[in-house]
Every structure is written in structure tokens, then in C-alpha cells.
Amino acid sequence: MARETSNNPSMNAPAENSSGDVNSCDDQLEAVRADNEQLFSLMQSDREDILRAVLRNPALDHKHLLVLLKRRNIGSVIPAIYASKRHIEMGAVKFALVTHPETPPHIVQTLIPLLSIFDLLKLCLMPGVSADIHAAAERKIAQQIPTQPLGNKLTLARRGTAAILDALLRDGIQSVIEVCLDNPHLKEGSLHQFLTSVHATAENVSMVARNSRWKHRPNIRLAILKNSRTPLIWYTVFLPELPATTVRELLACPRLTPAQKELLRRATTSQHS
After folding, report:
1. Rounded distance between C-alpha atoms, residue 28 and residue 127, angstroms
2. pLDDT in tens, 140-169
3. Which of 90, 154, 156, 273 has the smallest C-beta neighbourhood within 10 Å, fewest atoms?
4. How many CB atoms lie within 10 A of CB 222?
5. 181-184: long-range pairs with CB below 8 Å, 24+
6. Strands, DSSP E only, in the chain?
7. By the 8 A CB rule, do 256 and 228 touch?
8. pLDDT, tens digit, for every residue of 57-106?
9. How many Cβ atoms from other residues are within 10 Å of residue 228's Cβ?
10. Whole-number Å distance between alpha carbons of 64 and 48
């Protein structure tokens, strides 16, 4: 007797699943063996298993990964990229991972210290970067400033954020401070704090006193005149424009040198005469 054929679709399901698994395995194997140009096409795949297989391809390089990391909705693949250490040796890949909106925060915080100082600077200046990433990048730059060559410090002085400029002022290099003074991100409060610190040498104070952006600001002038290292020439320049009450306030400042106080007393006498 001939065996009756079942019309139940479920009877054939295992065979279909098995075929699908075989096809999937074949696709993954092709992804692992794909050449350089084929890899660029595979970067557009919507299949997570293919993208993960591609990561095992020995021909995969940073150019392929940068194409992939321009995409969205690949969040599940990002930890796999990070876990494969050879793929994040390139600074460009690390930066792309840090700036990708789907990268988990713990991976971002691990990668930030590994970025170059100018990648960190780009992070600080990028619109839309979260406050946590922004602050972490600024902290890392501030930590590295003392060991940076002069050229890097000058670039940071021209382009840096307020927090970076604070760190550069504390570093105390005259040519760097001069560039900081013209950076629009420099805040008056930061400069005032610098002028009252041990880093404000006579030369640095004079730079501020000559700077067209800062020399007319009342609070900056007072900070200059309250500094015991301020050259006497600036008393001669600024005192005639100050009210008598301000001159008397300066005269009571205990940190000033005898020569500075003498000029203040003369200014007080001339204002009364």
C-alpha cells in the first residue's frame, strides 16, 4: 500500500529550517571570505549575522569599519567591533565608535582615554555631544597638557574650550597664554582667577594689560593692580582713570609691594589736590 502523504505543513518545517540554517551558514562563510570590494557591499547588509561574520574576515580594515559606523541601527554589532581589539587600533575607528549614538556608555568611557589629543579636541567642539562625553574629553586634555609639545599647546590655545583654556593658563607658558587671550571661549572669570594665581608672572600680567580685548574691563584692571608682580608702569597707566574709592581700596591691599603702594598714595594725593 502506498504511504499516505500528510497535508500538514508543520511536517515539512524542520526541513525548511534546516535549509535556512544551511543558507545562513553559507552566507556567513562567504562574508568571512569576501574580498576587499565585496566587503564594502556587505557593510550595507541588514543581517546582523552577516555583519558579525564580516568582522572575522582577515581582509577587513578600518575603511570598511568606518563605512559601517556611519550607519544607524547597528547597535548590537558595536560591542562585537569593540571586543575585536585589532579593529580598534586605528584612531579613526575609536573616534567613530565614541561618536556613534548607539555605542554603550561604558565603551565610550573606556575609549575616550585612548583617543589622540586632537580627536579629544574634536569631541569637545562637536555639536550634539553629550555633556558626559564633553566633560570627559576636556578632563583628559587637561591631564595631558603638561606633557604636550609647544605646537600642540598653541593649537589648543587657539581652538580650545573654556575648560581647556583654564588648564593652559595654569600651565603658565607665556606664548600660549598670549594666544589664549584672543580665544573667544576664554571667560573673564577664568582670566581674573589666573591674574590672582601664582602663574601670573610680571610678563603674563603685562600681556593681559596690553590686550585690547581685556585691558578696559574694570574687574581685570583691578586684578592686575592687586597683583604684587604687576610692573609699576601699569599703575601709571591705569590709576588716573580710577575713582578715588577704588584707589583707596587698592591701597588697603596687603599683598602689594612698597613701590606699588607709593604710587597709589601719590594717586590719592593728586586726586585730593
Report:
1. 38
2. 999 999 999 999 999 999 999 999 999 999
3. 273
4. 18
5. 181/207, 181/208, 181/211, 181/213, 181/214, 182/211, 182/213, 183/157, 183/158, 183/159
6. none
7. yes
8. 999 999 999 999 999 999 889 999 999 888 888 899 999 999 999 999 99
9. 12
10. 16
pLDDT at 259 over 80: yes
Q: Is 65 exposed, middle or buried (0-12, 13-18, 19+ CB in 10 A)?
A: buried
Give, rounded to a whole angstrom, the gap between the first and last alpha carbons of the chain.
134
DSSP class of 85: G
The CA angle 38-115-145, to the nearest 5 degrees, is 160
C-alpha cell recorded at residue 232:
609699576
Mean of pLDDT values over 189-208: 95
CA–CA distance, 130 with 222 (Å, rounded to integer): 37
